[in-house]
Amino acid sequence: MAPQEPDRHTFYAGKPQPSADSKETFQTTDPSTGKPVCTIHTSSPSAIDSAIRSAQSAFPSWSATPPIDRARILLRAVALLRARNDDLARLETIDTGKPFSETSTVDIVTGTDVLEYFAGLVAAGGLNGETLRLRDTVHAYTTKEPLGVCAAIGAWNYPIQIALWKSAPALAAGNTLVYKPSEFTPLHAEHLASIYREAGLPDGVFNVVYGAGDVGARLTSHPAIAKVSFTGQVATGKKVAASAAGGMKYVTMELGGKSPLIILPDAPLDSAADVALLANFFSSGQVCTNGTRVFVPRPLQRDFERALLDRIRHVRPGDLFDPATNFGPLSSALHRDKVLRYIRTGTELDRARLLCGGPEPVDGLPDSVRDGYWVRPTIFTDCTDDMAVAREEVFGPVMSVLYYDAVDEAVRRANATDLGLAAGVVGRDLDQCHRVIAQLQAGITWVNTWGESPAEMAVGGWKLSGVGVENGRRGLEAWVRNKSTLIDMSGSVPTVFTKL
Ligand code: NDP
Predict the structure, then answer these.
(1) What CATH number is given to the structural domain containing 374?
(2) I need a labelling partner for 6 at 20 to 30 A (CA). Which of 50, 399, 463, 498 fits?
(3) CA atoms in the 13 A half-sphere facing the CB of 325
(4) Maximum C-alpha span of the chain
(5) CB 209 within 8 A of CB 48
(6) pTM of the predicted model, to two decimals?
(7) What is the CATH number of the domain that holds 217?
(8) Candidates 92, 102, 116, 254; catalytic one
(9) Per-residue pLDDT tens for 419-447?
(10) Hey, which residues does 356 pair with through a beta bridge?
(11) Do 341 and 382 lie in a common domain?
(12) Per the record's keyword annotation, is Nucleus included, yes or no (predicted)?
């Protein structure tokens, strides 16, 4: 079958640049059918260098553009993104395998909100510094300066949202950007670049390179790159941070997690089960902040499991464009195989009790999507802390339920991991909820809900889950450097080198 999307080429100086590409290509596939969708031309080393040069030549003028004028351009892009929400959502569905019911209400919406937030923030003085009055004749001021040409490298689970969460504060602060989407989900990038251009973004401010890890690695080690903002796995993040450190570049690292969800003894069971399902099966479990270790008081075991089984019937795989479908295939055959290996490990080696799901094919799929990369929503229960499924990030629809006897014990076990991205509690007594949250070692926490991440709220991981934050006021600080200036108006230089 012929690809459904036009070829993608390195995008710089305001347009796709077929002539600059190497001969290497790769195909993307629709995860619901396994069929090819698009041919991507891998950016050659010289094409990557040209994209960086394009960003370098655009920097002096873009960084000197007043923030309110930059904001006007970005707000025009906001309007275009909202007007084209459904077209972009269709593309994200074909690229990622997420149902249209999800991509049309979450992916572009939450990315665009962040663009609107940072445009508004810089227009309203968010890049202003401080004035410090030190003495009558001496004061100091600070200014926030953009960093220069920055690199953004994305994961495959929220492609356009990640591209917007990185480009919004970067561009609003006056930087120029070279963006590499994941090789598995690159389709959005050219549309975003074209929308920015249509909104009035000068050529060279937003550029796109395509390819696998070697393309990302060329960006992170390039001397002209001032900062690397990375979203991906911990193991890759370590390589990216090490490479960036060699050039003393700024970094933001948004990495993986194995986040705990603690159901407190007084929790309403229906809400607890709703939160657990949301925290595990949204986006078919391919969410970095998923609450995959669900700690439940032992006396609630039977009722909690029944509540989970009642609800699992409402996880509906199917045609991704059917409004009733709320569960899609995994993003690639490679990733499906990895998740299935974890499920087999859970049953065969860990010997966790399989409450539902498992490695068998998903039943009842329409013929049109039967060849997709499906995995059943799977719940392991009676898990122990040392099991692979309860310890390692699976990044698929696999929940591990662990029982506990005392809340302190649950907190201790929840924190016994090198990761610290997210955590949450469900309970009626809000005092106790806050006491538990205060003890949990994670950068993003929720009480009686899961997953909402509004533009105003800074988010980032603790421990091996990351460095720095995205979004919120603090998210802008990640894209600027500080300059402090002290002015002495006394008329005499306070030197010690005077005649005795
Ligand atoms: P990967 O780490 O495999 O890849 C992330 C990006 O890095 C891809 O574009 C990849 O290229 C690129 N890359 C690979 N090697 C290098 C290298 N040496 N130098 C520079 N770039 C490189 O992550 P996944 O795509 O598998 O994404 C899933 C992971 O992302 C999960 O661990 C998830 O938790 C995490 N994540 C974290 C989020 C957060 O906000 N904390 C949000 C979303 C996801 P390519 O894959 O194209 O070869």
Answers:
(1) 3.40.309.10
(2) 50
(3) 23
(4) 96
(5) yes
(6) 0.97
(7) 3.40.605.10
(8) 254
(9) 999 999 999 999 999 999 999 999 999 99
(10) 379
(11) yes
(12) no
